[in-house]
Amino acid sequence: VQLQASGGGLVQTGDSLRLSCAISGRSSSVMAWFRRALGKEREFVAGISGMSNENTYYGDPVKGRFTISRDNAKNTVYLHMNNLKPEDTAVYYCAARGSRITVFSYSSRQYAHWGQGTQVTVSS
Fold it and tell me: What's phi and psi for 109, nearest 5 deg?
């Protein structure tokens, strides 16, 4: 499985941005986005399990502002980010659990496959 994250950029407070994670190879039903801000530990952002958009999970800082979704036809997982804040500034990584695993996890240690990261910078 190879993951390619894209869509980051420099935006202003209150703006929206959509990140994409293109999946090559065998799809995983459990996908997630994590982020790492400068000087901080990696943080869970959002996750999705199953091949529909019914089962989604969010970290407290982004609840109500971010939405994760997947397009199976395009083999892509998205992170829609609204009302961005300066504290959302970080490198965002998409991650996948093993293709045979169906149980969701909030722990980054449970994810075997990682994309290269895309920088999101929110100016105040």
Answer: -65, -20
* Average pLDDT of the chain, as a whole number: 96
Distance, in Å, from the CA atom of 49 to the CA atom of 103, rounded to the nearest integer, reads 7
Assign residue 25 a region (left: φ > 0; alpha: ψ between -120 and 50; beta: otherwise).
Answer: left
By C-alpha distance, which of 89, 86, 87, 105 is closest to 97?
105
Percent of the chain with pLDDT over 90: 89
Residue 51, pLDDT above cutoff 90:
no
What is the biggest distance separating any 2 CA atoms in the chain, rounded to whole angstroms? 42
3-state helix, strand, coil in the chain (%, to 5): 5, 50, 45
Kindly provide the b/e burial profile for residues 83-110, where b requires at least 16 CB atoms within 10 angstroms of the residue's own CB: ebeeebbbbbbbbbbeeebeebbeebee
pLDDT for 25-36, tens place per residue?
888 999 999 999
Q: Are 9 and 120 in contact (CB under 8 A)?
A: yes
The one-letter code for the residue type at 68 is I
